[in-house]
What we know:
single chain, six-stranded antiparallel beta sheet, 6 strands
Amino acid sequence: MIHPDTTAYNAALDAGDRQIADLLAAHIDKLLPKAQNKIWHRHPVWFLDDNPIVGYSKLKGCVRLLFWSGQSFDEDGLEPEGTFKAAEARYTSVDEVNAKDLKRWLAKARDIQWDYKNLVRRKGKLERL
């Protein structure tokens, strides 16, 4: 279920970005029904067993969709992000969101996970779940 804080986050965006965020939230919520949604580090994120899976945030000029384990998906359309296993897609229009790609990426997000929840305990070493 989409958390009320996520709904408020989306509502605070301008109209174009809100359309993107609402579409992403609806797809994520539908395709990851066991995931818990909350605002984490000021952005909507979905977790499975306390492990961050997917989220989005407003950046200057776009909405970024981030998959914490996305580099392991081996998917066109996702670009590496950061020093761990994350990958992202950026959108400037709701028309750029490809529902077929999103469905495939979300299935992989559920099945391919790196253990971010224990990253600090493991002193920055990621292990695949």
